[in-house]
Structures are given as structure tokens and as C-alpha cells.
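Quick one, C-alpha cells below. Sequence please?
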């Protein structure tokens, strides 16, 4: 039996007047996902446990079969694993975004113009992060460049995570940052790093060149997502399966590595609407033919569009996933005598809010040869709500794999 999970990050949304009262999932042209809905089993799952942050870290941990209440220790240490950064048990990791802040003189009076610095390229970002490391780094505070706007700070033998109150920058797009700056007894140094970065980054050559091209500058770092080194039971021990994760983002790669799955590097995987959608599908099929039995394909693009409030791009991302990922994989799976395919999301990223929410998300499980069950079936939030409900998100993987 072959098992494939296709996760469209942040696909669910709210009905929008601009779309005639439909959600982007309902509005988008998705013949392949709709085919699954007509023949498969639809339902919703509570991927974010009550009281926990509605982040991709918590939600994807849950989707992969691990109870966040037991295993979650923070976002950044998961990303550190994917980046190959070694952490001791008492080290503390932080996500370090490159962001675009407004030009007010006082740092605390600035607004969050863009949490991604206009989706800055990895090459440009690495130059900037090298400058950040030289200016702000030390033997205790190590900065590591990552992909696009996503980077890392590790505080060696750092204080307890509970001493910090941090805010993801994608939660405050367009807002004045005053109320969202690092707080807590150990946060003073982090705020100092952020303020100091804003003193020299606007003059960096990369930013001057970006401004000349009409692009947003990476004029500050933004620290958040603190946590200690996590540990997970292996996926093979839990489910008896070998497999891979395919994603552009370090968070998902890190979860894969921590669970004993292989995290593959795919040229052209960007985490945005420019990603190689079809390339992900083709790599998934290649891994199945190479003997792997479980494939987890993660596509970030709808989430990025949701954070940007970009309705056209979100719809396009959903349609690209349907055509070039779901459709391509469905056709390729016919080479195998038995398979199960699950399509779902991790959390909603409503365009009206431009951040994550914790409502249950739709999923569909399809088995090869499943007959037509509902001619009116559609892969959407409203149709999924008519199906089964799984309250504990980490139990969905058990259900999908038939455990």
C-alpha cells in the first residue's frame, strides 16, 4: 500500500463578498480535489488543540500524528534541525525574520509593512544575514541564514522560553509594532538586537539596490518562535512506514527529519506562488517508485497569499495545487495496485485577517477504485463540515493509515 498526503498550507478561508459569498476553495476551479470529494471520505479535523497557538508548527505536528501537547517545544528549534544547526538541550532558538518596517524615527512607532521583505530572494537575504551576524553575533548568540526571509538565532545556554512573550510578524501586517515587541524578563536583549539591526540595515548595499528596483528593503530583523530542542518518536516505529517529506520550508523539513523521514531538497521549491508545483508531484511519484511507502507533500503558497491579503494569488495557488500536484499525483498513483491519498490543510489563513486561525480544516481521504458516492461533492469547507469530525488532530494520521 502506498500512502500520500498533500497539504495545502492555509487553504481554508471565510466566505468573501468579492467572490459572491464563496470561500477561495469554493470559488477556485479544482476538478481533481472535487473528484476526490465525490468518491472519497470528507470530514474536518481540529488540527490546533484548544489553547495552543494556531501556527503551522503546532498544526503540522498534529497532522503528522504527534500530539502537540506532548511534543511541541517551539517553532524555531524544528527549523534548526532542517538547517543542520546543532543545538544542546539548554540552547534556545528563535526564528529571525527579515522584515520591512515603516520609516518613523522611533523604532517602537514603526509599522509592519511586510513580514517577508517583499519575499526577498535567498541570495540577497544571505548577504544581509551575514552582515547581521558580524554586527550582532557572538559566541553566545549565533545567527544562521536560511531561505528567503526565514532565518535563525540560537542563544547558547539560553534562558527559559517562558521568559519571553513574542509575536509572529505575519500576525501584525499593517499594524504599529508598539504592542507586539518582545516582552518578558529576558526580552531586553532581543529588542536591542532588533533596534540595532534597523540602525544599519537600511544602508546595506542589498537594500539600496532593492529600493532602486522598487522592491521592499529588509530593514530590520524580527525575532519570535522561541523554543528548546524537540524530540519525536520515529514515524517508522509508530506506523511501520519509510517515507519522505517534500517542502520548501525548513519547518516541515525539520518535522520530517525529527520523525525519521527523509527531507528531500527540490530545486525550484520556493514556498510561494513561484514554486515548482509539478516538480513536487513528480518527485513524490519518483520516491514511491524508489520504494518509499509514505510521502508528505507540503505546499506553502496559499498561506503566503493569505498573509499578504492577496485574493487572486490565493485562488491561483489553490488551482495550481489541484492541477499540478493533486492531478499529477493521482495519475501517477494508478501505476500502483493499492494506494490511499489524503488532501487537507493545516489551518485556515483567512484573507480578511491575514493570519492563522484555529478552526477545524477540511480533509478528504480517497482509496484507489473508490466508487462515486456523492455527485454533488466538492472539496470545500462547507461540504467537509457535513462529514466526520476528528476532534484530536493527531489521531487523523492513525485514521488515514488504518491503524
Amino acid at each position: 500500500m502506498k500512502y500520500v498526503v498533500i497539504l495545502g498550507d492555509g487553504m481554508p478561508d471565510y466566505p468573501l463578498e468579492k467572490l459572491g459569498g464563496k470561500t477561495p476553495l469554493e470559488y477556485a476551479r479544482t476538478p481533481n480535489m472535487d473528484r476526490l470529494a465525490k468518491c472519497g471520505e470528507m470530514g474536518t479535523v481540529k488540527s490546533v488543540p484548544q489553547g495552543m497557538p494556531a501556527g503551522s508548527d503546532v498544526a503540522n505536528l498534529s497532522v503528522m500524528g504527534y500530539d502537540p501537547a506532548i511534543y511541541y517545544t517551539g517553532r524555531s528549534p524544528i527549523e534548526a534541525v532542517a538547517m543542520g544547526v546543532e543545538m544542546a538541550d539548554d540552547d534556545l532558538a528563535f526564528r529571525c525574520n527579515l522584515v520591512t518596517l515603516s520609516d518613523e524615527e522611533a523604532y517602537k512607532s514603526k509599522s509592519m509593512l511586510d513580514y517577508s521583505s517583499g519575499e526577498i530572494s535567498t541570495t540577497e537575504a544571505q548577504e544581509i544575514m551575514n552582515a547581521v551576524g558580524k554586527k550582532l553575533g557572538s559566541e553566545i548568540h549565533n545567527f544562521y541564514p536560511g531561505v528567503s526571509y526565514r532565518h535563525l538565532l540560537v542563544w547558547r545556554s539560553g534562558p527559559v522560553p517562558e521568559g519571553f512573550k513574542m509575536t509572529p510578524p505575519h500576525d501584525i501586517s499593517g499594524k504599529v509594532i508598539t504592542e507586539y515587541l518582545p516582552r518578558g524578563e529576558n526580552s531586553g536583549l532581543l529588542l536591542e538586537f532588533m533596534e540595532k539591526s534597523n540602525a544599519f540595515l537600511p544602508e546595506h548595499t542589498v537594500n539600496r539596490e532593492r529600493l532602486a528596483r522598487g522592491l521592499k528593503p529588509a530593514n530590520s530583523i524580527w525575532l519570535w518562535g522561541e523554543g528548546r530542542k524537540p524530540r519525536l518518536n520515529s514515524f517508522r516505529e509508530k506506523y511501520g512506514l519509510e517515507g519522505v517529506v517534500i517542502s520548501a520550508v525548513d519547518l516541515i523539513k525539520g518535522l520530517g527529519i525529527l520523525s525519521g523521514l527523509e527531507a528531500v531538497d527540490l530545486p525550484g521549491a520556493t514556498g510561494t506562488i513561484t514554486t515548482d508545483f509539478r516538480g513536487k508531484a513528480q518527485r513524490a511519484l519518483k520516491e514511491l517508485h524508489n520504494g518509499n511507502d509514505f510521502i508528505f507533500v507540503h505546499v506553502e503558497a496559499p498561506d503566503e497569499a493569505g498573509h499578504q491579503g492577496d485574493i487572486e494569488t490565493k485562488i491561483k495557488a489553490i488551482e495550481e495545487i489541484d492541477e499540478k500536484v493533486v492531478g499529477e499525483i493521482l495519475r501517477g498513483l494508478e501505476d500502483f495496485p493499492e494506494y490511499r491519498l489524503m488532501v487537507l490543510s493545516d489551518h485556515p489563513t483567512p484573507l480578511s485577517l491575514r493570519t492563522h486561525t484555529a478552526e477545524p480544516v477540511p480533509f478528504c481521504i480517497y482509496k484507489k477504485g473508490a466508487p462515486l458516492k456523492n455527485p454533488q461533492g466538492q472539496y470545500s469547507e462547507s461540504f467537509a463540515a457535513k462529514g466526520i469530525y476528528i476532534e484530536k488532530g493527531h489521531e487523523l494520521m492513525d485514521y488515514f493509515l488504518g491503524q
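Residues 2-72+231-401 form a domain with the Alkaline Phosphatase, subunit A fold (CATH 3.40.720.10). The first strand starts at residue 2 and ends at 8.
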